[in-house]
Amino acid sequence: MSIKLGPNRYGKAETHVVGVTKNGGVHEIRDLNVGVALSGDMDEVHLTGDNSAVLPTDTQKNTVFAFAKEHGISSPEAFGELLARHFVDSQPTIHHARVSVEEYAWERIVLGAGNEQHSFVRSGQEVRTARVHYDGEKSWVVAGLQGLVVLNSTGSEFHGYLKDKYTTLQEAYDRVLATEVNAEWRYIGEPSDWDKTYREARRAMLEAFAETYSYSLQQTLYAMGERVLAACAEIGEVRLSLPNKHHFVVDLSAFGLTNDNEVFYAADRPYGLIEGTVLREDAPAAGPAWE
């Protein structure tokens, strides 16, 4: 029987770094959770325990903090690419780096004109994400967001579906459509401003969700991905995962009350999970971007 080592990588997970940029009394915050995964000439460490090719994960953690000070954090994508290039270009045994970043947003608390602006409150439910691969020659960037909860209280139907002896779901001609948007998009060109492109992609998804009269969550998914590609030329592919956060009309007839789509039971599980990809036909190959 022949046995060999397969693909492998190692790194430091969840280094939580908060960078504060101070412009007098006005401060800016970037709050990141950074994961590093490296691969390369790692056969001997697995087979014999020889660590001579290994950059310690503690060193990787320290590099994240040092780079936050030395280079600042302009965006999750730029910071991730800076780290990925450093690990590969500085170590001959490291051939590929994957840096994954989550950003947690903070909103400034402004008390009035002339007040020092260094107080913040966590804003939004979603987490901004970025994942950068670098192999010594080329980089691939996938960005996105997780946990963006949206709801349309009308403007959605669901009917005309397949039915069999197990079908009990009633056709709906006016329903609540709610989901938690988990989206990633692959860059095919580097934008001039990562933050601006992120905001445009997020805005495009929200506008498509609000403006699409929906006959299915699948239709809404496609509309959201299509709108992102139309708004952002640097993006070649969008992947969306949309759990259907079901809202069922409560039967109030036992209490002598009518319910004209005004009171709902929000069920958290089980739920439908709608996933799909929308991409440009001429988009270049993804490489390892989605890994």
From TrEMBL:
Catalyzes the oxidation of uric acid to 5-hydroxyisourate, which is further processed to form (S)-allantoin. Pfam families: Uricase. Gene3D superfamilies: Urate Oxidase (3.10.270.10). GO terms for molecular function: urate oxidase activity. Pathway: Purine metabolism; urate degradation; (S)-allantoin from urate: step 1/3. It catalyses: urate + O2 + H2O = 5-hydroxyisourate + H2O2. Its EC number is 1.7.3.3. Belongs to the uricase family. InterPro entries: Uricase. It comes from Nocardia suismassiliense. Keywords: Oxidoreductase, Purine metabolism. The keyword Oxidoreductase applies. The keyword Oxidoreductase applies. This is Uricase.
